[in-house]
Design a protein that fits this description.
The chain is an alpha+beta fold. It is built from 10 helices and 12 strands. It is globular and about 65 Å long. InterPro entries: GalP_UDPtransf1, GalP_UDPtransf1_His-AS, GalP_Utransf_C, GalP_Utransf_N, HIT-like, HIT-like_sf.
Length: 382
Amino acid sequence: MSTSFDFDNDSHRRFDPLRNTWVLCSPHRTNRPWQGQQEKPSTTTLPTYGSECYLCPGNMRAQGDRNPVYDSTYVFENDFAAVKVEQPDFPLTQPNQEDIEAGDKSSLLLRAEGVRGKCYVICFNPAHNTTLAELLAHALLPVISAWKSIYSSLAQRAAQGEPFRYVQIFENKGDTMGCSNPHPHGQVWCTDSIPTEPSTELTNMTAYKTQHGTCLLCDYAALESSAEGKPRVVLENEDWIVVCEWWATWPFQTLLLPKRHIPSLLDLTEEETASFADILSRLTCRYDNLFETSFPYSMGIHQAPLKGKGTACEEDGCDIAHLHVHFYPPLLRSATVRKFLVGFEMMGEVQRDLTPEMAAARLRACDEVHYKNKVVEGENEQ
């Protein structure tokens, strides 16, 4: 037994300051044999246009509306929205002390509140068979523009008193992640309250700022960018950095964040927007190249809440918020073996085998020429 602690071999816990939780790391388990579930690798070859696809240009959607023959990014209100604006008010249930003292604790334990908001679908590209990973940076600029446009529109409406508080932009890629349509698309859900995950982050970032006087994610970006050997850095350009963060849960989880303090997408300069598109394209391409498969993930953008009418900025957390993007991919060892959060992870605390440093090294080693394009180039050479 070695007398010095080895983070690449010895079990340990890592602190997650964004969630104020811990992650158990068990790197010595990476060599264990796998006899569990293996996914079937996708062998489906999609056409450029899907005649039955409700997201393709010119096609009829499920509720009867027809898409325009769009040639870039296309946005529409979700036909099956998770939240809606037009519904009766139902204020947050407050504990009734008199009832509680009388023995009726239903108001304490059975609490609820109504939620209002809007949901949008963003078709990234008209091509049915092209994912973000296969789009070059310039083709991602219309996607980022759509994200900005929706956020800006809802921010204006919130400032006028409409019930919009938080804009959650996300993409579920692949049927493994529950994606119901392979056409490249993402979603935007806007709610009249701040959801649990970004709310937890804002709470902990506020506590960090109060205690240390600086931004948690600004400090973290600077730390990772200046670390000797940059062991967790996957990609970096002048404005952005991608890391397999110290406290990551998923095997190849990454955090993409700007190097300067930027509360929301609307605060990006033109140059930062271009470099954002560049690093998004490069990261998603590396994901696909890791196991030479269309790499599934859930991606989400966290940024400043919307400023409500008559509220101060600090009350809404917009001065604390630091724009960042989470990528949560489930694949573990190959295109067919995935990570599940079960057992100890559900009942105890989050656990991982592959350390973030190991994951970052593997992603850094990936080519940035998409594996599909390499096959085509090889065929052309023959």
